[in-house]
Design a protein that fits this description.
Blueprint (H helix, E strand, L loop, with lengths): L2 E4 L6 H4 L4 E7 H6 L1 H13 L2 E7 L1 H10 L4 E4 L2 H9 L7 E13 L12 H11 L3 E3 L5 H12 L11 E3 L4 H11 L2 E5 H6 L6 E5 L6 E8 L10 H11 L2 H9 L1 E2 L2 E2 L2 E2 L4
Parallel strand pairs: 1-3, 2-3, 2-4, 6-7, 6-8
Antiparallel strand pairs: 4-10, 5-8, 5-9, 5-10, 5-13, 11-12
């Protein structure tokens, strides 16, 4: 059986799972992309794992790992992942796949970001125009990526006015808010392509190397939390690096567009 839960006051691991369950914290962008629906049935068929997904932002996923409430995490914020391993909460970090972040906005493009040469200039123009903008605002990998670009742009979101909307929500909910407000937003490409409620929004900017979006798998360290299903987590890791997984990831498309590129290393 495969279960997928959006995080809402997740309780202790013992209350939600038996010993044969693998608890994997994944990002909302992974879930919103639709790739989970492709991979999970194959994982169950090949490994017989009772896989329970906890769908959260990267920051929350890391905290669940630190508490030993999950067996492994699949996230996309390298600096935070490396700190997680360095602090002993994860045994190692192994890359799986990548895509990129993109800037979405209304077709009218009040801030004229479609004519910019880099992501920082795009955000500078949005700030200068005080154009309505939606931020995840949830300590997710996408939110961390956005803050990095604001830093490069030498702008501080804490000083912004009412045009800047930090919604504290997952990727799908944030995109829905942006659609309702006809606002700019930073999204991962996969979530955007799989998003059905686009309204007047279009992809306006992409291609800056700073928007590279790497996903990695980190098993929780059994030395910190002896109750985690480490052996099962390692079986899943090997499957995620298999030729079958690579083919499923690389061949996953929406309207002819590839959402992820496998780059797992042996």
């Amino acid at each position: 059986m495969i279960r997928s839960l959006v995080f809402a006051g997740f309780l202790c691991s013992a209350s939600l799972a038996q010993s044969d369950t693998l608890k994997l914290a994944v990002t909302t962008s992974f879930e919103n992309s639709g790739l989970a629906d492709v991979l999970l049935p194959e994982i169950e068929a090949d490994l017989g794992i009772d896989l329970q997904l906890l769908v959260v932002g990267t920051g929350q996923a890391l905290r669940l790992g630190e508490a030993g409430d999950v067996d492994a995490i699949l996230v996309h914020s390298r600096a935070s992942e490396e700190a997680f391993v360095a602090d002993g909460f994860g045994t190692h970090r192994r890359e799986i796949m990548y895509n990129d972040f993109v800037l979405i906005g209304p077709k009218s493009d009040k801030a004229q970001i479609g004519a910019t040469s880099d992501a920082a200039e795009s955000l500078q123009r949005i700030a200068d125009a005080q154009a309505t903008y939606v931020s995840r605002g949830d300590d997710s990998g996408t939110h961390k990526a956005e803050l990095k670009v604001w830093q490069i742009a030498e702008r501080e979101p804490a000083t912004f006015g009412s045009w800047y909307n930090a919604v504290g929500a997952g990727m799908g909910a944030a995109l829905n808010t942006a659609s309702a407000l006809n606002a700019y937003i930073l999204s991962d490409r996969a979530s955007w392509l799989n998003f059905k409620n686009k309204g007047d929004l279009v992809l306006l900017f992409s291609g800056d190397p700073v928007l590279f979006n790497q996903y990695a798998y980190l098993p929780v360290n059994p030395a910190k939390h002896p109750t985690v299903q480490y052996e099962m987590a390692m079986k899943l890791e090997e499957w995620l690096h298999s030729d079958k997984s690579a083919a499923l990831i690389n061949n996953y498309q929406i309207n002819g567009e590839t959402l992820f590129v496998f780059n797992g290393q042996e």
